[in-house]
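Hey L., structure's done. Input below.
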Amino acid sequence: MLSPPILLSCSVVPLPIFTHSPPAPIPTPMALSISTPTSSSLLPASRQAGRWSPLARSAKPVSFSLWRSPLAARSAAGNAPASPVDEVVTELDAVAGFSEIVPDTVVFDDFERFAPTAATVSSSLLLGISGLPDTKFKSAIDTALADGECNALEKPEDRMSCYLTKALANVGAELAQQVPGRVSTEIDARLAYDTQGIIQRVHELVNLYNQHDVSSDRLLFKIPATWQGIEASRLLESEGIQTHLTFVYSFAQAAAAAQAGASVVQIFVGRLRDWARNHSGDPEIDEALKKGEDAGLALAKKVYAYIHRNGYKTKLMAAAIRNKQDVFSLLGIDYIIAPLKILQSLEESVTDPDVKYSYVPRLTPAIGKTYEFTEEELVKWDQLSLAAAMGPAAEELLASGLEGYVNQARRVEELFGKIWPPPNV
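Output:
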């Protein structure tokens, strides 16, 4: 999978590789916002007010931001006023009243003109920055490569890993100065099966961010949803450190993550659909298909119902959105990561002012009371039950995603090895 996002609009929030047909890379959400939502789990409470700009078209590296119009916010609050006859209302206005929209792209022009609300820093973003001749973020990487603590390490692999960690924190700290919301930091996928390794790396990053005066409430850590990653999430959340579990392709992973208290769980709707088109033999997917349901959408609905049935704090994010119908089918979910072409189509589609409020959420907390779960699904998940329940789709997609992330991290370290030492060091 993974071709690193170079800074041009592209779909990215980096994610995966495959044995069969490679899934589309994961989104690195970027800014596309008009106004901040009235509330957002990605924005600290003290930073949830303000106006932002419409559709950004080019330039500085950033990711993970939310779009919601003032009209949508009023509609979501249930107090939208009657529309003037000449009011132009787009489908994007209508759908943004029910879910926060996360644009899937990786490039921005200028923070003053196109202000993103939050950001994600990852290996793919570092590759993109390193490929630019002139960007303020380049100095953050040069500073990491000049770090004395890293330089003192004897083993080349330890040095490169140290540079990678420092570079992520340096770039993330720069982004924290540019956005009002949280900065999400990718955790090295090579630690995916090492609970203590994940926790240690997160603590290292928290300390580095604190040295840059970035407080913990501004941070989110993106961890693969292996059992070890879920257990790391549980322990980190108990310390007040917010986590974002990714590579979730099964109900068991999502339920275990919610039980662990993960702040955000990300499901890849389109990738599950793609897998189902070319494979069979996964009980969870086969059950959805028997009911005439789309495998990815069915999983999102089931997980949403589970979270609300049990009152978990976890927010649910849908990624790998393939078309506008996916957006309509997911209305009500906390976050939807959608490609720019879909958002532009929604923005260009004008709805009748009298029709816009007929858009209704497909996912509401009430479904938690009516959704039928089996006794096996309502257990307290542990490593053995998770492994037994994941199924071939989740196993394959998780493995391919991890492979892609690992390859990206290695590419960054190889690049750092070639350009070290930086100028003036």
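The mean pLDDT is 79. The two ends are 35 Å apart (CA to CA).

-- N.
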